[in-house]
Amino acid sequence: MLQQTQVITVIPYFEKFITKYPTLSDLADADEEALLKDWEGLGYYNRIRNFQSAVREVKENYGAEVPEDPDEFFKLKGVGPYIGGAVQSIAFNHLLAAVDGNVLRVMSRLNADARDTTKAGVQKSVKEEIESMMPLEAGDFNQALMELGATVCTPRTPKCIVCPVQEHCEAFRDNTVHDYPVKKKKPKKKEEYYNVYFILNDREEIYLYRQEGDLLKGMYELPKFDVDTSMENIESELGVELDQKKVYIGSDKHVFTHKVWYMESYLLHTTSSNEHFMPLDEVRDVPMSTAMKKVFRKLATDGAGGL
DNA sequence: CATTCGTGGCA
DNA sequence: TTGCCAAGAAT
Length: 307
Known about the structure:
This protein is α+β, with helices and mostly antiparallel strands. The protein has 2 domains: 7-179, Helix-hairpin-Helix base-excision DNA repair enzymes (C-terminal) (Endonuclease Iii, domain 2); 190-302, Nucleoside Triphosphate Pyrophosphohydrolase, CATH 3.90.79. The protein has helices at residues 7-20, 24-28, 32-39, 46-61, 70-73, 81-90, 101-110, 120-132, 138-151, 170-174, 231-238, 290-302, and strands at 190-200, 205-207, 209-210, 220-221, 224-226, 247-255, 259-269, 277-279. The strands form 3 sheets. A 4-stranded mixed sheet has the order 5-1-7-6, with helices on one face. Helix 6 (81-90) packs across helix 9 and helix 7 crosses helix 9 (138-151). It binds a DNA duplex through helix 1, helix 4, helix 6, helix 7 and helix 8.
């Protein structure tokens, strides 16, 4: 949960998961769609699939005991350098570093390190440097380093005046704290323009399906097409016959890490039905991305009422 | 090594 | 309004 996600955001999800899935088996046996519903809104949805995969692996191949051997633990899905170091140091006191964004920022300033911290090789180097001076209280040390970054050595206005390691900080000495960490600039987000359709039939059902591909995989979405797609193509793609008149619902923008969706939504009627149609009162129970929820919200407020 | 994975808060 | 950033990992 904590991968690229703030602690404050994670807390309510964490509470829900440990309550609803208190044991390894509860998580291992859970339905993927139910897990996605509980993860809804947290983003990076592959994380929960990876986690379930790791839990099943532990249950089946490690006697339901989380492996204390770092080499074994690192084999689990979703376990990378950070999670591996964090868990193995905090839970089992192995002398491994837990290098997250906070730690990279702290270390780059301490050393006035101008290397690009987005590069895996640089992160590995920082990890090895920390491990070369790791005290026996590895878990505490890792958490202290992260906490220092989260509360004192912050991105914008670091509180150098109260920093406990100020006298060791090369960037502070040089008055160049704001030059670190060095990161390569992110490429511009790709803009994508879609028409999104609420297709309702006579039985109060709506066309809704699980998203495939990689982005938002497993989350339910409304039929969505490039803006230049003809109605004939849409009917043929979806296997439905659509009434001529369509009602404009609204416009939504949704920003992802690497792309932006611009969505225009419309309400359409059909007399068709197929396996993709779902009763309207079941829509609330399926996992849906924040992007699609925005579109639905507009229908509920401005549209034909009813949801 | 670079790209692709969500979402919300903040300046 | 825009870009940055968050207890990163898989591909």
